[in-house]
Structure formats: structure tokens, C-alpha cells
Amino acid sequence: MATATQAAEGPAGAEQDERQEATGIDTGTLMGVLSGVFLIVIAIIRGGDAGIFVNLNSALIVIGGTVATGFIAFPSKKITVMIPVIQNAFKPGVYEPEDYVDDIMRLASRYRSGGMKQLENEESKLDNRFLKSGVAMIVDGYNAKEIHELMERELNAMMDRHNSGQKVLRFMSVQAPVFGMAGTLIGLIQMLMHIDDPSTIGPALATALITTFYGLLLANLILTPLAAKLGSRTEMEGTLFRAIRVGIMGIHDRVNPQKIQRTMNALLPPSQQRE
Helix, strand or coil for residue 242? Predict the structure, then answer.
């Protein structure tokens, strides 16, 4: 039998439990990024010389400056774990709240009919960390107040953990255009140093503006949308976990499973409610 403490424990940065470890790619995120890049590239090609939009110095200023300010503003550990955080945005969302409603109704029925032994047997079959933690606390004899408080702490910890990654992305999305403008100023200064040759002004000005273009692209096509996607998933997880907590409290109090279902449905969007 897993204790409540063991069930609640997990890797500090765990974003998803076993059922939530998705395979494949979220087509919406991937198609959004690829279509955005594709349309911009097509527009550039149709406009003429596409080669002028490739500038290594501009990319170094924007990407390097954005990442550098991230290291200044946040602990280095938060920056180094951003790659897995970003990867989560490309994983398909696999939360199916109605499945958890079914699980909790089954658990409630088994507990009402078979007692603690039946609930203990069902505990090992659960794959949601939050649900398993709640069931373990019932099995271990926690009272309703203790269960509610511990699950609230676990929920808040999950929300804080997810929001910390999104906060880094939002910060970087602000910094990227700033460094784009900084790169443009650098290019303008270099251009003015050779203003005695009018033939170089046009190409030099175009090159200077590319840095601003890179900054806007990084911020508005990549960082801001990814932060929004992760934020919406965090909201969905929070809603699901609150519904699971309601179910756990109902199991503990031996509430009728149909009543538990109606109470959980009240917390879920209509499209995710179990009929």
C-alpha cells in the first residue's frame, strides 16, 4: 500500500503524471508555428531578395540578449529547464476529465459497498498522481480537513511550478523586441559612420531593421503564443484537479456516486462533462 506522502511525492518539476505523458505532437501548436513561418517566408520571397533577411549578427543580438537577460532576471536553473517546458507546449493535451469522473464514481461505489479494503485494492490501479494521492490519504485514515488542505497545497504547488515557466517565457517575449531595437540602433550607428557613401545607406538601413524584425518574430510568433498555450493547459489542469479533489472528498464522506458526478460536472466545461 502506498502511503499518502509517497503518492503525493514526485519529481519537483514534473509537469504530467503517467496518463498525462503524451506521445506524439500537438498538431495545433506545430501547425501554428509552421504556417506562420511559411507565410512570412512566402511573403519575403515574393517581395524580392530574400537573402537580405538572413543576418547572423542580428540573430546573435536578439537571441543572445534575450537569453542573457533571462539569466539575469531568474535563477539559472529556471532558464536551463526551459527546453522541456517549451517541449510540453508541443505535446498533445491528453486530459480527459470525463475519464476521471468515471474513475471516481467507480471508487465511490467500491468504497460504499466493499469498505476500505476495496478502496485499497483500487489504489494501485490509478495512474493520476493527484487522484492516487487523495485515495492514499483516505486509506491512511486522514480526516476530511487534512485531505482538503494537503490536496490544496499540492494543487497550488503544481500551479506555481507551471506558472514559473510561463513567467520566464512572458519575460523573454518582452525582451526580444527590445534587443531587436537595440540591434537596429547598432546598425544605424554603423551606417552613419559611412554616410559619406550614399550608395551604402539603403542596404545598411535594411540590414539594421532586420534585427527589429527578428525580435518581433521571436516574441510574437514563438514566445508569447507558447506562454499562452502553456497557460491554457495549466488552467485546464487546475480545473481538473479541483474536480478530482471534490470527488475525493465525496469518496471520503461516502457520498452517493451520482451526486459526486453532478458536483464534479459543475466544475467542468460542458464539453468535458460526463452524462
Answer: helix
Q: Assign 9 to helix, strand or coil.
A: coil
* pLDDT tens-place string over residues 251-265: 999 999 899 989 888
Contacts of residues 209-213 at CB distance under 8 Å and 24 or more positions apart, as own/partner, are 209/184, 210/52, 210/53, 210/55, 210/58, 211/55, 211/58, 211/61, 211/62, 211/179, 211/180, 211/181, 211/182, 211/183, 211/184, 211/186, 211/187, 212/177, 212/180, 212/181, 212/183, 212/184, 213/53, 213/180
The H-assigned helical ranges of the chain are 4-8, 27-47, 56-73, 76-80, 82-89, 97-123, 129-139, 144-192, 201-217, 224-252, 257-265
Report residue 94's pLDDT band, with 50, 70 and 90 as the boundaries: low
pTM for the full predicted model: 0.77
- Residue 93's pLDDT is what? 65
CA 134 to chain centre: 24
pLDDT in tens, 54-76: 888 889 999 999 999 999 999 99
- Specify the DSSP class assigned to residue 26: -
Q: Are 262 and 254 in contact (CB under 8 A)?
A: no
pLDDT in tens, 205-215: 877 889 999 99
Is the torsion defined by CA of 57, 58, 63, 67 positive or negative?
positive
Rounded (10°) CA dihedral 229, 230, 233, 237: -170
The per-residue pLDDT of the chain, averaged, comes to 84
| Residue ranges per structural domain of the chain | 25-272
Long-range contacts of 43-49 (CB under 8 A, 24+ apart): none
Do 42 and 184 meet the contact criterion of CB atoms below 8 Å apart? no
What pLDDT score was predicted for residue 95?
64
